[in-house]
Amino acid sequence: MEKRKLKKPEAIIFDMDGTLFKTETLLIPVYHRVFDQLRAEGLYSGETPPEEIILSCLGMLLDQIWKKVLPNHDEIVHRRADELLLQLEHEGLKEYVTELYPKVEDTLAQLRERGVRLFVASNGLELYVKDVAETHEIISFFEGVYSAGEHKTSTKVDLVKLLLNNHGVNNAWMVGDRSSDVEAGKQNGQSVIGCAYAGFGADTELVGADALISSFDELIQLYDEAIS
Which pTM value belongs to this model? Predict the structure, then answer.
């Protein structure tokens, strides 16, 4: 665990994919089904793009994702891919064995016991983000679950700003695995904890974070050692 001296937060805001949820346990099988359906509908031909491309897009808005995964296809194909992804992820959470990262539930419980207010801020769609939290029975830990899909925000900076304002939070930690999480925390004047265990992004993703953790439960030690 790499860290600077941190101030104890009143609230912690979590990204979902690559932070709480081991996204590839759902995304990889769904990704292949999306392209099977696009081919069946005549909207796509050829091999499915490499899995590494979609995994590298985690943390982006859907519009940005399809521009990277399907750069040579138009908005009609992109929007149909949106629909299929949401539908198949919803079905897949019931069909597949999906996973949170180790010790997520126990760590959230311990933070709540310490009086920390917990939130989620994700660039995903509302149904998907809440589905994951409900399926894995962690939604009750959170005072608010915010998604770009629900609040129509164009950046995570704006989403986190909205969350902070709506809940009167002044001192928070933003916890996530992508540069968008670092940006969202820092541009809103908050500390950032970078999750270095997911491995989806480049080495530079978490530059600027105040601390890096290699497992989720290290948050407890960080919190307990932070300055009141």
Answer: 0.92
List the CATH number of the domain containing 16. Answer: 3.40.50.1000
91 and 187 inside one domain: no
> Which residue's entry shows tokens 């759902």?
26
Q: Which of 95, 119, 153 is the last residue of a domain?
A: 95
* Alpha-carbon span 128 to 190, nearest angstrom: 26
If one counts the domains in the chain, the total is 2
Domain that holds residue 80: 24-95
Distance (Å, whole) CA 64 – CA 99: 25
Q: Cβ neighbours of residue 51 under 8 Å, at least 6 residues apart?
A: 28, 31
Q: What is the full per-residue pLDDT of the chain (228 aa) written as tens digits?
A: 444 589 999 999 999 999 999 999 999 999 999 999 999 999 999 999 999 999 988 888 888 999 999 999 999 999 999 999 999 999 999 999 999 999 999 999 999 999 999 999 999 989 999 999 999 999 999 999 999 999 999 999 999 999 999 999 999 999 999 999 999 999 999 999 999 998 776 668 899 999 999 999 999 999 999 998
Q: How far is it, in rounded angstroms, from Cα 143 to Cα 180?
A: 22
Query: Are 174 and 159 found together in one domain?
Result: yes
